[in-house]
Structure formats: C-alpha cells, structure tokens
Design brief:
This protein is mainly beta. 13% of the residues lie in helices and 37% in strands.
C-alpha cells in the first residue's frame, strides 16, 4: 500500500494494491501496518459508516467538536466521488487549507482525516457508495458543519453537476462565521486528543 501526505497537516491518501484475476478482484482498502507507518499510530475504529448517493449529492463539510473529536478513514466502494478536506483546527500550520482526492473508479484509494479536519464529498456518479471508519460513535450534539459552497472557501466543485445538499448543510455557517462563533477546534486540543 502506498501512502501520500496531503496538503492538510496529518492527512494522508492511501492506495492499496489490487489483486485481479478472471474471478474478479480482491483489495484491502485499510491496512494497519501501512497506516501506522505513515501516521505514526494505529487507527481505533468505533463505528463503520456507509452512504449511497446520487450524482451531484454533496455531503459535508462535517467535523466533530474536539474534545472528544472524531477521525475518519474514508474510501469509495462503488461509483466515484471527489473527496474534500478542510483544516478547521485553529493554530494548525495548515489552518484554512484544503485538499481533494478523487476516490472510487476502481482505485480503492482511501483518505485519512485527523481530528478537527472537516470532510465533504460530491458523488460524481449515481449510486456512489462511501464507507468510512470513524474513531468515535455518532453523538448528534457533537456534530458540526460548514457550508460546502461557502464562496470564501471557493472549493472547486465540478461545474457539470447540480449540487444537492441536506437542509443541515444548506443552513450551515460559512468558514469565517464558524471561526468567529468559536465553533472551530483548537489544533493543540486535537493533537492532545490523538495522543491518548
């Protein structure tokens, strides 16, 4: 498995080897030794999430209040998605930076999101299936969002789609508004929580 560090501090893309033969294929999108070698610690999964989306659906930008925080390991099991991350950690060396990775399309690439990094994706095909391991269980009052179409962020969403957002994401504040309201996690708190 190949690991590549992304533009957001502590975030990585992982590309596994695909074993194909006349029967089909076998792939391991998550491999603990490769993860530990890149990130420096193990990933402790508390929950496995699954979503299926129609073309144009945008989910996120979502992150979890830290502490307790929630890290994610995400891959696309079917279809294709453009996956985004935004560093929301106040005090981070990459605060406000974003990066994106195209997932799916048979690559089984995966992306790791450390605590305090917001996650969003757009489905590029109908029936796009995303699977993500998360480090903590879902607690609604800990879940936060930033509007994915915030013009100040200017994320490069594909121009050939009509965005479909949930009511929660349509009503989410912009990045600057969330920062001014004190909703963003502190980098020091995220690093400390990940060290536990």
């Amino acid at each position: 498995m190949r690991a590549r560090e992304l533009a957001v501090a502590g975030a990585f893309e992982f590309t596994p080897e695909i074993h194909a033969d006349p029967r089909g294929l076998f792939v391991a999108p998550y491999q603990e030794p490769s993860f530990r070698a890149a990130v420096g610690r193990s990933f402790s999964a508390a929950q496995l999430n699954y979503s299926r989306s129609a073309r144009g659906v945008i989910r996120g930008l979502h992150f979890t209040r830290t502490p307790p925080g929630q890290s994610k390991y995400v891959y696309c099991a079917g279809g294709r998605a453009l996956d985004f991350m935004l560093d929301t950690r106040v005090g981070s060396p990459t605060f406000g930076k974003w990066d994106s990775v195209e997932l799916g399309g048979g690559s089984f690439r995966a992306v790791y999101f450390p605590l305090g990094v917001a996650h969003s994706f757009v489905a590029l095909e109908d029936d796009t299936v995303m699977a993500y391991m998360v480090s903590s269980s879902y607690v609604p009052e800990q879940e936060l969002a930033i509007h994915p179409l915030d013009p100040e962020l200017a994320l490069p969403w594909p121009q050939d789609i009509t965005p479909v957002l949930s009511p929660r994401d349509r009503e989410a504040p912009g990045f600057a508004e969330a920062h001014a309201a004190g909703l963003l996690p502190r980098y020091a708190d995220c690093v400390a929580a990940e060290a536990v």
